[in-house]
Every structure is written in C-alpha cells, then in structure tokens.
C-alpha cells in the first residue's frame, strides 16, 4: 500500500529572498502527522505550492516520498483560499454566522481548484494507492475523484468542528459538500460530537445509501508525545518573570475562533476582582501571524492590540505590565521551552476542532496547570484540565485565580493524569487507529466485491 495524500498546504516550501533560496519546513500538527505516515509508506503528497520559489519544484523527492505541487494564480488563490475556504467555510464550521461571507463566484473557483487537486490525484494514483484527503479546503475532492473514474479506497479526514445540521444548512452549497464527502469510503473526525452532527447532516440531506455508522469514525489527533516530553531545555526563558509570581502562557494563530480578546479581558477581570494579584503574575500571550492576506485578520490584529494596550495602560506601571504580548512565529525549540516552564497555560478558544497546543503543553510541561475551553475538541480528552466557558469572563477570572493558588500536589495529580492520556493516544496511535479501521473496511469491500 502507498498513500496519495492530499492537503491544501505542503510539507515543505521553497522561498526566494535577496537572491537566496531557502527550504521552509511547514510546521503544525496535521503536516507533522502525515509526514510520519508518508515516511513509513511512501507515496505522493499533493498540495498547493504557495512558496514564491515553488514553481521551480513542481515535483520533488522529499524524505522518502514525492511532493507534487498544484499552482494557483491570484484569482484562484483569492476565490479558493481567502474567500470560500476562509471567508465562508471557516466561520460557518466554527458557528460564526455573522462572519460567513456569501461571495458570488467564490464557490465556482473553490470547485475548480478542488477539481485541479482531483486531477492530480488521478494522475498519481495506481492500483496500490490509498487516497487520503484532508480538511475543509478540499471537501469536493472525493466527488471529483470519483467522477474521474477512480475507484480506489478514499479516506477523508475533517480537522475542524462539524456543526449541527440546522446550522450547516445555512450554507447554500451544503448538499454539494455532503454529496462529495460521502463519496469517500471512510470519514474521520476528532470527536464523537462532530461525527454525530455529520450523521444528522447526511440524514437531513437524504443520503439513503450512505452507511454513516460504518463509514465514519472519531479519532482525536494525537501528538508526538515523546518529542514533547523529551525536552530538557536547561534555560528557562521565564525565569526573570517568575520572580514576580506565576507566568500564564498561551500561543495561538491570530484567529477570531481562538478567543484572544476574551482571554485578555479575563486577565483584566482577575486584576479587578482580586487586587492582591497586582504585580504578582504575568500573562505571556504569543500570537502567530496567520492568513495575513485576509482583510478581516488585519482588523482583528488591530483590535486585539488596542485592547492589550488599554489593559496594560490601565493596570500596569513602570515596573510591571500584566500582559506581555508577542506577534511572531517562534522556533520549535523556543516554544518547547515556554511549554516546559510556564506555570499556567490559558487555552480558551471560542470554538476549535481539537487544539494541539493544549496536548503539546501537557506533554512538555514540568509542573504546569492547563485551563482549557470546553469548546476545544481536546477537552473531551483532557477532563483533568480546568475546563472553562470562554464566554464567561467572570468564571474565567475565578478559574485563573484558582490555578494561581492551586497546591503543588493537585497540579501534579492533574498533570500526570493528562500526560498518561496524551501519551497513550499519541500520534502513532492516531495513525494506527485510522489504518486499522481502513484495512477492515477495505477487507469488507473486497469480500462484498468477491460475492
Ligand atoms: C487546525 C484546527 C486542529 C503555532 N504557532 C507556532 C507553532 N504553532 C503550532 C503549534 C501546533 C499548531 O501550530 C497549531 O495547532 P492547533 O491545533 O492548536 O490549531 P490550528 O492551527 O487552528 O489547527 C485545530 C488542528 O487543525 C489539527 O487537526 O487541532 O482545531 O483549527 O502544533 O505548536 N509552532 C512553532 N512556532 C510557532 O510560532 N514552532
């Protein structure tokens, strides 16, 4: 068996600046997970070459497999990526109804780009291939692949929440999307809730022949727990700050789903409600640039920075600022050292398919406590975290205060339990669980075809 993996982003990109070309390894949970699977099985990885020197590398051998790139012109990129994927589907699948954009023509562009991906799949598929398509940007790929006459086994993994069927139905193209995804032989989600919602969408959009129970599964994406727990970072970057007290930490892509403003407001509420905390903690908020070509994200950055400025201006002084804000991408090594030494991780998205950061923090932390939103898929796996509703600023402030005052014994008990769960259901477990299920379904299919 070999894989034909299809994702919007590539595992590596080529950039050219100042006359020099550099190879950029793309980080992030999905790419890392699939890279491991590809190193074992080999095959072809089809993805959108968005590096400014990728054109020189339409096909490239990389660490034991082939990367085959699709290229998009400006209009295609805009309609496919900025408009339909990130302007329509992303807010819809995170329950942000007022942000869902209905731009004429963008679905046509999205559809044409998905067809391009499907054509590349057809070109790269042989008898031995299992096709594995990922995420909301590529929902129409399974349907197009079938239309091109490819009968190979298709796995489709959906990485973001699947909303309730009533909510999903506000999308004018709801039926086209479900009709395509159900062309896959196996569909996986991060939680049972998303799987249940998907099943209801299928029922509502009448998919009588689709056996939802057999062909859908919920496997929560794991992390490479060995990698995160091996951290032996001798230098604690937070040491100076910790002289004042506890350090609260977070890292997120800049996105309205991550609840960054509510989080800053909850830290302000701690100061108002518990004045004894003044000068006795820091909140280190790291924000990674994301979707920087989408105008909404540019506005979001400004709003967040104004709020942080206001809070620091109102509550800080020349010696102490409550929020230390950084807007940049950091190396893995730096990130790991923050995970290792932070006292509290404050991970409170308004809605998140899973949230890998919470699992990474648990694996790497020395003696930290995790505050986690109930609306992150990872909350189903980490019940020993302090679970909060990110819309309840007051309760979040109380929870932060509780975390600041928690006994070492309780922190350790909770952290150990979470470490066990993150290690047991790690990345290897996730890949093996999906492969095992796929093999069972493939064997069933063979048996049916033989009768
Ligand atoms: C989507 C879904 C689902 C971030 N900044 C830096 C950096 N990162 C890494 C983190 C983590 C990944 O990026 C972010 O993953 P999340 O899961 O937290 O969030 P999304 O990007 O929104 O991911 C999400 C995921 O897909 C997988 O299915 O969990 O729900 O929205 O791995 O560590 N890494 C480094 N520097 C940074 O500045 N090195």
Account of the protein in words:
The chain has 451 residues and is α/β, with parallel strands linked by helices. It folds into two domains: 2-222 and 428-450, Rossmann fold (3-Layer(aba) Sandwich), CATH 3.40.50; 232-424, Glycogen Phosphorylase B (Rossmann fold, 3-Layer(aba) Sandwich). 45% of the residues lie in helices and 19% in strands. The chain is built from 17 helices and 16 strands. Bound molecules: GDP-alpha-D-glucose (GDG). Residues 27-30, 159-160, 221, 251, 253, 288, 329-332, 335, 352-357, 360 line the site of GDP-alpha-D-glucose (GDG). Residues 27-30, 159-160, 221, 251, 253, 288, 329-332, 335, 352-357, 360 line the site of GDP-alpha-D-glucose.
β-strand amount: 15-25%
What is the total number of structural domains?
2
Low-confidence stretches: none
Rg calculated over all Cα atoms: 23 Å
CATH third-level topology of the largest domain: Rossmann fold
Task: Tell me the span between the first and last alpha carbons.
Answer: 23 Å
Give the helix tally: 17
Assembly type: single chain
Write a short abstract of this structure.
The protein is α/β, with parallel strands linked by helices and 451 residues long.
Question: Secondary-structure blueprint of this entry?
Answer:
Elements: E1 2-9, E2 12-17, E3 20-25, H1 29-41, E4 43-48, E5 59-62, E6 65-70, H2 74-92, H3 106-124, E7 129-134, H4 141-147, E8 154-157, H5 165-168, H6 174-181, E9 186-189, H7 192-204, H8 212-215, E10 216-218, H9 225-229, H10 239-242, E11 246-253, H11 260-273, E12 281-288, H12 295-315, E13 323-327, H13 332-341, E14 344-347, H14 356-364, E15 369-373, E16 386-388, H15 393-404, H16 408-424, H17 427-450
Parallel strand pairs: 1-4, 1-7, 4-6, 7-8, 8-9, 9-10, 11-12, 11-14, 12-13, 14-15, 15-16
Antiparallel strand pairs: 2-3, 5-6
The structure holds GDP-alpha-D-glucose (GDG).
């Amino acid at each position: 068996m070999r894989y034909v993996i299809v994702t919007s982003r590539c595992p590596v990109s080529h950039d050219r600046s100042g006359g020099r070309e550099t190879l950029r390894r793309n980080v992030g949970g999905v790419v890392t997970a699939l890279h491991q699977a590809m190193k074992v099985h080999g095959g072809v990885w089809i993805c959108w070459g968005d590096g400014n020197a990728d054109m020189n590398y339409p096909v490239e051998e990389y660490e034991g497999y082939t990367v085959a790139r699709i290229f998009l012109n400006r209009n295609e990129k805009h309609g496919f990526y900025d408009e339909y994927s990130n302007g329509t589907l992303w807010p819809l699948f995170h329950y942000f109804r007022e942000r869902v954009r209905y731009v004429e023509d963008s679905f046509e562009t999205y559809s044409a780009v998905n067809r391009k991906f499907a054509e590349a799949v057809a070109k790269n598929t042989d008898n031995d291939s299992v096709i594995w398509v990922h995420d909301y940007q590529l929902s129409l790929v399974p349907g197009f692949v079938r239309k091109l006459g490819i009968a190979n086994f298709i796995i489709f993994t959906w990485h973001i929440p699947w909303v309730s069927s009533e909510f999903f139905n506000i999308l004018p193209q709801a039926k086209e999307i479900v009709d395509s995804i159900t062309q896959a032989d196996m569909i996986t989600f991060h939680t049972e809730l998303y799987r249940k919602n998907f099943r209801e969408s299928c029922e509502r959009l009448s998919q009588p022949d689709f056996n939802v129970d057999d062909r859908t599964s919920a496997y929560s994406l794991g992390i490479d727990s060995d990698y995160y727990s091996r951290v032996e970072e001798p230098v604690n970057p937070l040491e100076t700050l910790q002289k004042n007290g506890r350090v609260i930490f977070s890292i997120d892509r800049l996105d309205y789903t991550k609840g960054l403003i509510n989080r800053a407001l909850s830290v302000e509420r701690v100061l108002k409600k518990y004045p004894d905390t003044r000068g006795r903690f820091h909140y280190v908020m790291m924000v990674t640039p994301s979707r920087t070509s989408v105008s909404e994200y540019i506005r979001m950055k400004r709003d967040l920075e104004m709020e942080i400025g206001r809070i620091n201006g109102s509550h800080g002084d020349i010696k102490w600022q409550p929020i230390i804000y950084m807007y940049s991408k950091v190396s893995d090594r730096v990130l790991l050292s923050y995970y290792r030494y932070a006292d509290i991780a404050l991970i409170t998205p308004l809605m998140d398919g899973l949230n890998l950061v919470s699992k990474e923090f648990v694996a790497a932390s020395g003696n930290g406590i995790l505050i986690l939103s109930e609306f992150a898929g990872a909350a189903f796996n980490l019940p020993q975290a302090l679970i909060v509703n990110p819309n309840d600023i007051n309760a979040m402030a109380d929870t932060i205060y509780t975390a600041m005052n928690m006994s070492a014994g309780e922190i350790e008990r909770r952290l150990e339990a979470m470490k066990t769960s993150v290690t047991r259901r790690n990345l290897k477990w996730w890949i093996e669980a999906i492969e095992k299920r796929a093999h069972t379904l493939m064997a069933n299919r063979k048996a049916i075809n033989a009768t």
